[in-house]
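Recap from last week: sequence in, structure out.
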Amino acid sequence: MRSHEGIIPGVRRSPVRRDGVSIVEVLVAIVLLAVGLLGIAGSGAIAMRASAGAARERRAAQRAGDRLSALRAEGCAAARSGTLVDAGAALVERWTVGSVVGAGALVDVEMRWRAPSGSRVFLLRGGILC
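Predicted structure tokens:
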């Protein structure tokens, strides 16, 4: 009969050491990798949403500035209030020209658009010199 004892009676031999990685270590590494990849994917989605929102705001600000410039180019006598709906850009543009007071008129240009978080508004206030 074989004994589990070593050469010296009463002293046990140390178990044989194996080099390599256990299955538990591999599973833990896979779980950690999956959690990290999900975090990166979530951050990417948030960044894309923020980038799209910034692009819409930039487009609204640019169009409001363009509208104010066009009204200034028309002059006080020809400048009128109005509304423009751009379905392609999902943008509603509304401008109000106040009455001429002194040497100028106050102009408000309001841009509205839908965002995933709800309706957004950009207001640009300026004036037309007469």
